[in-house]
Amino acid sequence: MTAKRRSLPPAIALLLLAPWAAECSWGGFTLAGMPFVVLVLAPMYGGAALLIRETARRFGLRWPGIVALAAAFGVVQAGLVDQSLFNPGFLADTEFADTQRVAEATMVPGLGFSARQAVDYLGNHVALSICGPIALVESCLGADRRLRPWLGRPGLVVVALLWLGGSLLVFADDGGRKNFLAAPGQLAFAATVALALIAAALRHRPRPAAVATAPAPPRPAPAATAAPHRPGPLTSHTPTAPDQPQPVSSPAPRPVRVGLVVAVAYAGAGLLPAWPGIGLALGLAAVAAVLLVRWSRRPGWGQRHVLAAASASLLVAAAYAYGVPTYAPATPAAALVGDVAISVIVLALIGGAAWRLRAPSSPVHAPAR
Q1: What 8-state DSSP symbol labels residue 114?
Q2: What CA–CA distance (Å, rounded) separates 136 from 114?
Q3: H/E segment holding residue 333
């Protein structure tokens, strides 16, 4: 099988997984409605996930860069496409209409959006729409394909057009933007934030000579010239001579511990109401981010840790599905069948990815810094 044909299955998998994780994994739709949702929203969600993944792999971005690009997508989606961030009646015709009263307690003066909804929308887009699907699909690939771009230039153009067309479809559809148009100042604010996040993601990309599209074959080298795709916790930024003693660094924690940290941060984000809840959500996210960055620089950090961190939110969302209503009214039986199906699908996806990583060698790109 040629390299192009080998790259097509993971690209299609990400194209279909992203919309399912974004809109179905937390219980928003019944099992019968999931296929239609995935097909309709695949261009927008899947196209964005593919573009972000390809950008990261071509520019050598690490996971903080992917997170920043995912947040930019969340701002574009909620602020410019369906404009749910600024539309106070966006959920009025759904089973979530009562959440508007909670959202109004954290309105940002002058900008007309709820900080509670902003944290929820952006957090879910980062965790569920983009990062989780990318990590799951990449974990199912061999180490030699995990860091390589999947698409050539024609493929990138096709995916970009898919994303643009899918976004315009949602913008124009009555069930998407719901005949609401944000004020020019709100649209300018969303566009500015999205551009700032994109600039932040691309600003710290490695130099062209340091970008690796695949793990290099092992070869003798001094510590100061470690392979660029996975520099050591010390030699990446503080080169030392080969004959100098190396400080001993603690090993990376077990992947289960990494997943628990992310799960606590994701689950705890909505525990408190109003502004204290916003502070708690941001504080938990900051603590989790700092721990992940530090742990990723330790020896032993690998793709299993990436999978644990990225899939933890999907597990929590699947558990929450049993207590979350669907967008449209559904019978208790249909809702329960859908929730059970979500649990089975999420466990199968994570279990399958973990099984693919069972081989002893599963290198990952550079630490999260």
Answers
A1: E
A2: 31
A3: helix 332-356
Three state DSSP letters for 14-82 = HHHHHHHHHHCCCCCCCCCCHHHHHHHHHHHHHHHHHHHHHHHHHHCCCHHHHHHHHHHHHHHHHHHHC
On average, the pLDDT of the chain sits at 87
Q: Is 149 left (phi over 0), alpha (psi -120 to 50) or beta?
A: beta
Q: Which secondary structure element, helix H or strand E, spans residue 108, and what is its range? A: strand 107-108
The three-point CA angle 47-51-54 to 5° equals 135
- Residue of 158, 138, 164 lying closest to 57 (CA atoms): 138
CA distance 338 to 148: 35
CA 223 – CA 244 distance, rounded (Å): 10
Cβ count near 90 (within 10 Å): 21
Residues 258-279 have pLDDT tens digits of: 999 999 999 999 999 999 999 9
The C-alpha atoms of residue 91 and residue 87 are separated, in whole angstroms, by 9
